[in-house]
Amino acid sequence: MALIKLENVSKTFQSKFSALSNISFQIEPGEIVALVGPSGSGKSTLIRSIACLENIDKDPDSFISVFGHQVQKNGRIQNTINMVRKRMGVIFQSFNLVGRLSLEKNVLTGLLGSVPLWRGTLGIFLESERIQALQALNRVGILSQSRQRASTLSGGQQQRAAIARTLVQKSDIILADEPVASLDPAAADKVMKTLKQINQEDNATIIISLHQIEYALKYCTRIIALKGGELIFDGSSDDTSPDFFTDLYGGAIDMED
User: Parallel, antiparallel, or unpaired: how do β-strands 69-73 and 76-77 relate?
Assistant: First the structure.
């Protein structure tokens, strides 16, 4: 059974701009998929739709299912999203960390969906939960910065902390929306390497929207390409070529590592 399935998914904003048009595909457990395409192609909208942060257009034949449960149907987000969200982590370009809090406390927020509401509200976590957070920070290579305020760290370190947050959440699915867009090449490579390791070691299913084609080819086994809101390619990374990406982006693409 497919872990994620989209059927005839479209998204039109109030300005009548069609961000997605009849998108259909499915993703199997353990895949790591790059979502590529020029700016405005619909990548972020697609990520947000799967995460149910955007409602898809009304259409009785359209739906999004995750873990075998329909989370969006005919333009409405279903109640099943509440249990699905506990197993799905989302990473954004802007990190979404609380700058005044330490990395450890930021990572602990990944447990808010699984601890009693009163403890989460008061920021009270068990010793075993703190150990989970520290282990996650260790896995992404920034344990030594666990007590530092998030705002004092580099963009690459903050993004790895955001990944650690999905680890304590025990996410079976990670949706990453342009996670390396604002990072320098060295930091971006570390983030991509970390996501690849999580995919291989934890069998986590990962979808990453990317502008950097070299990272898509280096770290992802499958490419889904969008252009003008339409799906124009879905296949193995090995089946792409420089000419394909030149056509996709409307210009020559540097595909060197």
Answer: antiparallel
Quick one: tokens of 105?
């406390």
- Residue 28 placed within a domain: yes
pTM over the 0.85 mark: yes
> 128-181, pLDDT tens digit by residue?
999 999 999 999 999 999 999 999 999 999 999 999 999 999 999 999 999 998
Helix spans in the chain (H): 43-50, 81-85, 103-108, 117-122, 127-139, 155-168, 185-202, 213-219, 242-249
Strand 205-210, strand 32-36: pairing: parallel
Residue 47 lies inside a defined structural domain of this protein = yes
Residue 227, token pair as written in the block = 């252009």
Question: Half-sphere exposure (CA, 13 Å, Cβ side) for 201?
Answer: 10
Is 27 among the domain residues? yes
- Domain limits for position 43: 1-87+218-257
Residue 136's nearest CA partner among 179, 174, 180 is 174
Residue 48 lies in a domain: yes
CATH number of the CATH domain containing 240: 3.40.50.300
Question: Residue 254: is its pLDDT beyond 90?
Answer: no
- The whole-angstrom separation of Cα 166 and Cα 110 is 6
The domain tally of the chain equals 1
Kindly report, residue by residue over 94-110, the tens digit of the pLDDT: 878 889 999 999 999 98
Q: Please provide the DSSP assignment of 17-81 as one string.
A: -EEEEEEEEEE-TT-EEEEE-STTSSHHHHHHHHTTSSPPPP-TT-EEEETTEEEEETTEE-TTH
